[in-house]
Each structure stands twice: as structure tokens, then as C-alpha cells.
Amino acid sequence: MQLRRVQEMGGATFLISLPKEWARSASLRKGSLLSIESSGDGGLLIYPVENSINSRQEKEIVIDYPSKFGIPSLSGEITGAYLLGYDLIKIKGKYRISSLDRETAISAIKKLIGLEVVEEDALSITCQFLVDNTAVEPSKIFRRISTIVRAMVSDTIKQFASQESNLFESVSERDDEVDRLHFLIVRLIRTAVSDPRAAAKFGLNSIDCLDYRVAASLLETAGDFAVELSDAISEMEFLDENLKKELTSISEKLDFIEDGAVRGFIAKDYTLTRDVLERYIDFEAYLSKFRKDNETSKGFADLLHISDIIERIARCQRDIADLVSPLRSKSENLEIVKSTG
User: Fold this and answer.
1) Would you say residue 2 lies in a domain?
2) Residue 267 contacts by C-beta under 8 Å, 6 or more apart in sequence?
3) pTM strictly above 0.90
4) Which of 1, 228, 252, 296 is buried deepest, with most CB atoms within 10 A?
């Protein structure tokens, strides 16, 4: 760390000198242009214009074939490179890539949003990430994942009431979309962590990035639980009208929790997330009563399993709401008050 003393000129201009070593490494000279951006947390980001975020060089990685770790790791290596922010991923073989391995690689690529095969021959497969890393905000992807997960849960309960088997099938299919979006948001958050300019464009600081990483993982887990819920309910044989109504009521209460948790998290609004935490306590009590009231019901073991899965989904949403700290929200609100005078 180097300290610089601020100088004032003309009563309206403030100057500081740049570190000589940094200026030389950036090939600065008289007349060079610098990009100065707010980091969103009270700091400034200074970059030579030719190194601005819009002119970022593509990151490239070569995955050797055959993999030293074996065939199953090929898809894992592609996914890992994607998550680490590589724009160009090349699978380069010492000899012809077998049809089975090629199918494995293509299947892995198709599961990753924005990654497309741009070149292919007998010895290699080249894929490229074709989406601008800063064009899609993590908050929008996060909201989209939440919308899908909420629909997965509510449609499962609707299926129980209406006996439409096609809804069960769609739940599993939508979980694949949740996984794809989860991978994308992890990639964007990693990019923001490694590139302060991207973080500034997203309006995220380092703590925000950490929170988004955790929250996205919780949503993805909730999606997995939704599939488990769908499977459990689809296997139930006993259908009681009162039971349908109770599960529908549980679903509606859960939806309130899911909606409030995500809106509060994105807005960093502790008022919303505090309400979620209070609703969660009431929700647990409601589930407990549901279990007790149905202890003598036919198929109680199945009902107990279903209620446990629903509780796990609610717990994921509670944990998302818990990421919004009242102290943090208070300090951010104070900063807004100060900035508006």
C-alpha cells in the first residue's frame, strides 16, 4: 500500500500523483487516458483506457484429451473452466476423440448457458462463451431462478390436487434450467470477484458477491428439494380433499416466504427479510400442527416425509433472508441520507 497526499488546485480540483511503478507497467505517458469509475463502496477504480472492461482480453484454456483423470472428468473439466470465467475452452486430443467422449463433451457444453461449439474436428472441440459477462446482472438471474423454483413447488401441490401427471414431468425438466442458471450466476460472481470493474458495473461490493454466491447455492438446493417433493407426492396413493386443502395452504404460506426472501435479499431490505424470518417461525409452527393433526391419517409416513421436504425448502429461503444484516442495511441507508444531504 502506498499513501498519497491530496493537493488542491483552484479550489475545485483535487490532484494525487500515480505510483511510478504502476504507471510504467501500464505504459502511461503524457496524454494517456485513464478510466476512473466508482467502486460502489466509496473507492475509485483507475485503469488505462485500452485495458477497460469493454476491451478485456479473452481467457483461454486447453483441456488435454484423453484426460489424465479419466472420461468422467471431461465434463467436470469443461464445467470447471466455465465457472472460472474462461471464454475460450479447447479440448485438444493427442488422437481422434471417440464418439462417446465427444458426446460427453457436447452434452456438458449444452448445459452451460452462453457456451457454444464454434469449431470441431476429429482431434479437437473448441467452444466459446458468447455472452458479455457484464450484460446480464446477477440479480436478474437470481430472480429468474427463484421464479422457477417457486413454480416447481406450487405446480407440485397443484398436481396433487388436480392429478395432472404432466406437471410432475415439467418439475424435473425445470430443475435442469435451475442448474444451468446457477452455473451462469456463479461464473458472473467469480468474474466480479476477480475484476473490480465488473463488480462496479453490477453495483456489487465484495460482501455482495459472497452473499450472492451463498444465496444462489441455497436456491439451487431448494430446486433439488422441489424435485424430491414432486417425486414424493407423485407416489402417494391416498388423496383426501381436506389434505389437498391443507397442502395448498402450506404451499401458499411457503410462497410468501420465498417471494419475500428474494425481494428482500435483492433490495437489501431488512424490513422485508425480518418479515420473512417472522413468517418462517409461524410456518414451522403450522407444519408442526399439520404433522400432529395427521398422526392417525392413512399414509402418515408419506405426509411426514413431504412436510420435512417442504420445511427444508422454507429453511433455504430463511437462510437467504438471513443474509441481509440489519446493521448493514442501516449503514447503507445512512449513506443514502448523507449523499442526499
Assistant:
1) no
2) none
3) no
4) 228
